[in-house]
Amino acid sequence: MPGSVAAMSTGSSRGGAPRYRTTNVNADIDETLFGSAKTQRKHGDDKEISIVGKDTVQVRKRYDRHNQAKGPKQDAVIIAASELNRLRDAAKLMTKEEEYEQKMRDELAREERQAKSIARKEKIRQMEEERKRNAIQNDASKDGRAQKNSVLERAKQMLDEDMDDVKHMNQMMLYSKIVTIRDAQIQEKRS
C-alpha cells in the first residue's frame, strides 16, 4: 500500500537508512493545521506512538498532569474563526445532489449579479443618451437665440438708420471715404 507505514522500505540494497516512499510530491496539504515551525519538535520521549489499524499509526503527545507549566496549552495553535470555517467547509463531503444544488445556487447568484450589471450598464447608457440629447437641444437653443438676437440687432440697426441724424452721419462718412480714395488717386497720378 503506497503512502502507508507498510510501504516503508526496511533497508535497501544500497545499505541506506529506512525511508518513506513519496506517493504524491504535489499533495494538497493545509500547513496551518500543523502550527508554526517554532512549535514543531523532534520525536522524543514526550510522544506516544500507537498502531491503530493495519496501516494507521497514531502519534499523541504525552500529558504530564503533575507539571502544569508544560500543559497542553503550550503548543496550542490559535486560528481565526474564518480560517476554522474555511477548513470545515473544505472538509465536508457532499453528495452528488448537494454538489448539484450548490452549483445551481452559485449559477443563480452569478446570473443575478450579471442581470444587475446589465441593468446598471443600460441605465448608464440611457443617462448618456439623455445627456447627449440635452446637449444637442442646448446647442440648438443657443443657435436659435443667436439667430433671433441677430434679427433683432438688424431690425434695431435699420430703425437707427431711419433717423435723420444717423442718415447725415452716414452721408458724411461716405463722403470722407470718397475724398480719401480721390486723394490717393491724385497722388498716384503725380508720381
Structure commentary:
Strand 1 and strand 2 form a beta hairpin. It contains 3 helices and 2 strands; from the N terminus they run ββααα. It has 191 residues and is mainly α. A two-stranded antiparallel sheet has the order 1-2.
Key traits:
191 residues, mainly alpha, two-stranded antiparallel ribbon, 2 strands, rod-shaped
Order of helices and strands: EEHHH
**Strand order of the main beta sheet, please?**
1-2
Rg, Å, rounded:
49 Å
Sheet of most strands? 2 strands, antiparallel
Secondary structure category? mainly alpha
Number of helices: 3
Low-confidence stretches: 1-13, 36-43
Roughly what is the average pLDDT, rounded to an integer?
77
What is the number of strand segments? 2
Helix content: 40-55%
Outline type? rod-shaped
Report the sheet-strand fraction: 5-15%
N/C terminus separation: 125 Å
